[in-house]
Amino acid sequence: MKHLKLLMMTVVVATFAACGTTSTVPLTGRKHKISVSDEYILSLSNQEYSKFMESAKRSTDTRNVQLVNRVGRNLANAVETYLRNNGFANEIQNFQWEFNLVADKQANAFCMPGGKIVVYEGLLPYTQNEASLAIVLGHEIAHAVAKHSAEQMTKKQNQGIFTQAAGAILGATVGQEAAQAAGQIGSTYFSFRNLRYSRSNENEADYMGLIFAAMAGYDPQSAIPFWKRMAQSSGTKPIEMFSDHPSDATRIQNLERLMPEALKYYKPRTTVATPVAKTTKSSGKKTTTTKRRR
């Protein structure tokens, strides 16, 4: 009878963890199950975004602020057009786009679920042009479009359920000491496995972002020199298998392999040449160079 109860518990846990909505990732067609609602994710996202912007210092560099808004809007339009034309029109309602440049020396950018995009001023010396900035923002937008945050949250919820159930079963059969030891082993295993999930999501975002940039009229080939600049500027990084991101070398190799496909979507933007402000890395002073907008 005792073993029957344990078996029933296992079945219930497995069934619960398997529940969720099957979602298809645009462009890649990958299927994944998500057990958290769009409303919940967007609510969390808006809360975190509001907290961040309350403490962040907005950039006062008007030209670079306009640059971020221009590139971001071009990408948002391209993404929405793709979603509308490929059976994902219902997803557009989840995006309320905002584009912000913050005064921070970090070479970083992010896009929250719902389309809240933040670029750090420290990234601009590495992007150097609109096309490279589009590569970065395309990647960040891809995370939101692919619902990677919801996917990661679902995986962690399921892992927590399995860990608790396994602990209860082992505690009832072989004792609490063994259950605790197994729990620690399980936690380490899931942490290591989640790094691989994260790297897979990063690779998917690279692919999608490359194509989103091309759809928006930006040369996807700009991705290679940009990531080479980032690789040269970076300090010591963890070995890839212990990191949640692919190594720079792996990323560049993957992008080179994907380039022929991305170029199929590329139609250069035809606009009048306008000055684009570029922040120099050495002095922090702003210089103006003339570049043709892609």
Question: Would you kindly provide a written description of the structure presented here, covering whatever features stand out?
Answer:
By secondary structure, the chain is mainly α. The protein has one domain. It is 59% helix and 12% strand. The protein is built from nine helices and seven strands. The chain has helices at 2-18, 38-55, 62-85, 124-127, 130-145, 148-173, 176-215, 223-233, 248-263, and strands spanning 21-24, 31-34, 98-102, 109-112, 116-120, 274-279, 286-291. The strands form three sheets. Strands 3-5-4 form a three-stranded mixed sheet. Strands 1-2 form a two-stranded antiparallel ribbon. Helix 1 runs antiparallel to helix 6 and helix 6 packs antiparallel against helix 7. It is globular and about 40 Å long. The termini are far apart. Mean pLDDT is 78; it is low at 1-18, 185-197, 238-242 and 272-294.
Element order: H for helix, E for strand: HEEHHEEEHHHHHHEE
Biggest sheet overview = 3 strands, mixed
How much helix, percentage-wise, in residues? 55-70%
Shape by Cα distribution: globular
Number of domains: 1
Q: Would you identify the regions where 5 or more consecutive residues have pLDDT less than 50? A: 1-18, 185-197, 238-242, 272-294
Helical run tally? 9
Structural class: mainly alpha
β-strand percent reads 5-15%
What is the alpha-carbon Rg in Å? 22 Å
N-C termini distance? 70 Å
Widest sheet: strand order?
A: 3-5-4
Could you tell me the number of beta strands? 7
pLDDT averaged over residues: 78
